[in-house]
Amino acid sequence: MTKIIGVGNYIPTETITNLFFDKHVFFNEAGILLTENNASITDKLKKITGIEERRYAQSTQVTSDLGLIAARAAIEDSKIDPETLDYIIFAHNFGDVRFGTVQSDTVPSLAARVKHLLGIKNNFCVAYDVLFGCPGWIEGMIQAHAFIKSGMAKRCLVIGAETLSRVVDIHDRDSMIYADGAGAAILEVNDHDDSGIQSHLSASYTLKEKDYLYFGKSYNNERCPDTKYIKMDGRKIYEFALLNVPDAMKKCLDNSGYSIDQLNKIIIHQANEKMDEAIVNRFYQLYEKPVPKDIMPMVIHKLGNSSVATIPSLLTMILKGELEEHQIHKNDIVLFASVGAGMNINAFVYKF
After folding, report:
1. What are the C-alpha distances in Å from 155 to residues 81, 197, 198, 269?
2. Which DSSP symbol is given to 52?
3. CA dihedral 261, 262, 265, 266 (to 10 degrees)
């Protein structure tokens, strides 16, 4: 088995409420000015996504800085010597984008930067990045599990960090969804009991779906047309997620050998509260079961959507006792799942 032995996160200190967007000038996809007042726009956003606040990184920080803080916390939590790490896998999507700029910096890799800043001298600790949309951290965990299971590694650090606030179009209503953050976990081989990753699944839908999330020009036609920002077709993503994610979750759970009644928590990518609730509802409908109370923790209300950072950040908060209504105990069965740019879907079942 492959077991989590330490977790850590970094929740940025800059709290951005919905009032922050009160003076923003929003346009639609056709570049036409929205006549609806911003209070109504943010109210609709809150009703659909659940987002009241989000966190932004400080102007002096970049994605690798956030990842480093989360990595240090995970190392401290696991009480390991970082020199014993065989892999450092860093999931992100846009690299280091310095505040006030639009250029992405990914050379050297963010994993290499974290390894350097951790002062690791072991040249055979391999550091690389994963670009897999919002499911990147789960994919990194699956890859680390594969390395450990094959005997290629005994111990891995998997980081998910992003500063989405640096790549948003301020004239696009969707910019209010995105946030910054980081989370990390350390995995190692477990020969002592049956705790650890029980099953996993990954899929990439690219024939028709690859451009549901993309980089595109600003909705404000007066802005530089050569500068691109994160864009999404929200309706298509919602429909895609409801059609495909519950089935993937079911397949992953069935492959684990555990029943739906044995499932204690579902930790799902914090993308959109209504969408996540609909996914979980449909997942339980596949088993003809009602959704149990408190099965799905949600922190999107205060933290927004920080892409690859949402799941490891949330996991850390639960394991550190920071969410009153949610706990994970020994022998609990937890299903992790995500969906995002690609379009990619993945999941894994974990026994604590």
Report:
1. 11, 14, 17, 25
2. S
3. -70
User: Residue type for 187, please?
Assistant: L
Kindly state the DSSP code that residue 290 receives in the 8-state scheme.
Answer: P
* Distances in whole angstroms, Cα of residue 87 to Cα of each of 76, 90, 110, 130, 156: 17, 10, 13, 12, 5
Identify the burial level of 251 via C-beta atoms within 10 angstroms of its C-beta, where 0-12 means exposed, 13-18 middle and 19 or more buried: middle
Category of 20 on φ-ψ map: left (φ > 0), alpha (ψ -120 to 50) or beta: alpha
Residues 89-148 have pLDDT tens digits of 999 999 999 998 888 999 999 999 999 999 999 999 999 999 999 999 999 999 999 999
Sign of CA dihedral 104, 312, 198, 344: negative
Neighbours of 185 (CB within 10 A): 29
Say how far apart CA 115 and CA 251 lie, in whole Å: 36
pTM: 0.94
Smallest Cα–Cα separation from 276: which of 293, 259, 260, 300?
A: 300
The answer, yes or no, to whether the previous bond of 232 is cis (omega within 30 of 0) is: no
Angle at 309 between CA 268 and CA 202, to 5 degrees: 50
- Rounded to whole angstroms, how far apart are CA atoms 335 and 253? 7
217-265 per-position pLDDT tens digit? 999 888 777 889 999 999 999 999 999 999 999 999 999 999 999 999 9
Count Cα neighbours of 181 within 13 Å in the Cβ-side half-sphere.
Answer: 30
What are the residues whose beta carbons fall under 8 Å from the beta carbon of 192, sequence distance 6 or more?
A: none
